[in-house]
């Protein structure tokens, strides 16, 4: 992965965290208006400031946990859960803990995938996407509510939890994108609004569900792969070329070099951890990317 791509990945993650920090600051400035008792004494101040970073990761983790639980509850298969330096992933049909060294994932990530080509996968995935912001919104209300009844310094810790969670809710619903990826709100709209965008999302879920069900590309529809490749969104094109390589290898025993070149060129715009994982899957299938 080129250094410029890694830098872009880290800046994207930093930009998201800066947005959350700014929104949190604005929300914290409202303490005086709702009558929360201020910090008094050095011990209370130490406890409060020590808790800021852990609370940030806790709130990010709960947001991603909302996505994860919604996916698992609907029968999707666990793939990944990362918050800060800690991660859990599915690898070789086993679940393992690992130390996350990629700053691009410090803001949190969760992934589940369909296990079959159920026609309801689009609705299920839409609910999964919506679960993250709703979980953050619920935690915001709980945190701010507790802040009104607890004493110092725990009232401010509770308010900080609520403020960060509300900031994450806004950051994942107001803008359309953070870096190269759609926010939760935009992704939900794409999944639930009839048209080209929904067709692309459905094609992606059809491919994922069919492959998981058959453990093969034999029943994958080429038109679904082409739908992704023909899309204007770089991620969709990249995912399309990835699946085309897998399809060609299984059906023909070989892949076209221009397809590899297209896949590698598009890979430069995405997080290194994601690209390495996709590359590793291609290598497992005997596809030489060099």
Question: Explain this structure to me?
Answer:
The protein is α+β, with helices and mostly antiparallel strands. The chain folds into two domains: 1-74 and 120-182, no CATH class; 193-290. Helix content is 63%, strand content 10%. The protein contains ten helices and six strands. α3 runs antiparallel to α4, α3 (121-147) runs antiparallel to α5 and α6 (196-214) crosses α7 (222-229). The relative contact order is 0.12.
What's the helix and strand layout?
Elements lengths: L2 H26 L13 H32 L3 E7 L2 E6 L2 E6 L9 E5 L7 H27 L6 H18 L5 E2 L2 E2 L1 H9 L3 H19 L7 H8 L4 H19 L4 H11 L4 H13 L6
Antiparallel strand pairs: 1-2, 1-4, 2-3, 5-6
Helix pairs in contact: 1-4, 2-3, 2-4, 3-4, 3-5, 5-6, 6-7, 7-8, 8-9
Question: In brief, what are we looking at here?
Answer:
This protein is an alpha+beta fold.
List keywords for this structure.
single chain, 290 residues, alpha+beta, 2 domains, elongated, disordered N terminus
Largest beta-sheet characterization: 4 strands, antiparallel
Low-confidence stretches: 1-12
Number of contiguous helices: 10
Could you give the order of strands across the largest sheet?
3-2-1-4
What is the helix fraction of residues, given as a range?
Answer: 55-70%
Which class best fits the helix and strand makeup?
Answer: alpha+beta
Question: How many domains make up the 3D coordinates?
Answer: 2
State the distance separating the first and last CA atoms. Answer: 13 Å
User: What overall geometry do the principal axes of the alpha carbons give?
Assistant: elongated
SSE pattern: HHEEEEHHEEHHHHHH
Strand content: 5-15%
Q: Would you count the extended β strands for me?
A: 6
Radius of gyration: 21 Å
Q: Average pLDDT value?
A: 83
